User: Fold this.
Amino acid sequence: MKYDETEIVVRFQEVDEWGIAWHGHYVGWFEVGRMELLRKFDLLPRQFTEMGYIAPVVNLKCDFKEPARSGDHIVIRVTVLKPEKAALTFCFEIYRKEDQNLLAKGETTQVLMTTDGKLLYFLPDEIKNKIDSMIQYLNEP
Amino acid sequence: MNEIINDKAQLALFLKELIIRTLRLEEIAPQDIDDSAPLFKEGLGLDSLDALELVVALEKNFKIIIPDEHVGREAFASVNALVDYVQRESATKVSG
Assistant:
């Protein structure tokens, strides 16, 4: 499956006193990549809310491979797994652009709830159709 | 499958094995699961993702649907509650 890619530069305030990116920022970078993918399919958080849903993250994994440093150009790659249940799982990889080294890889899983807090057991058609389009886009050569 | 569905004890065992297999609860044996204990939170400690996996497993194995969380709260209250739900829904399907 193809990944959607977003580039950012690691900022000075994102590194710790050892000069490497603080581990929590990788989660924020995953979010940057995911938002750019969701934006293409009208699935931004505001648009979820307008449809009457929210999609809280219930699971997060991240493996750290190499540290990012201030000024590094990094590429956030994101893809989505075909849903087998009423949950959305996004997979991420973060590379340093200069040497193409893998810095981190991870995964997030979101469930869907109504805005009044009820867990959905099935993906609504309006969301399933958009996810199907996203998968089709990611499968294009 | 109908034989299992009609026998409460057999169905309870089948459902416990299904829960263990579906949720990969490798350290739990069917006899460790109390038939009347809650499946979520204080009982087996299952969470929202587990509920979604069980919904899919029940649909595959019994062709029955738990449509939403409101129904799920009743069906997933315990193994006993799930046995009752599967028996009731299977009977409705046959007669309906």
About this structure: Residues 79-95 of chain B form the longest helix (17 residues). The two ends of chain B are 18 Å apart (CA to CA). Chain B touches chain A at residues 47-49, 51-53, 55-56, 66-70, 72 (CB under 8 Å).
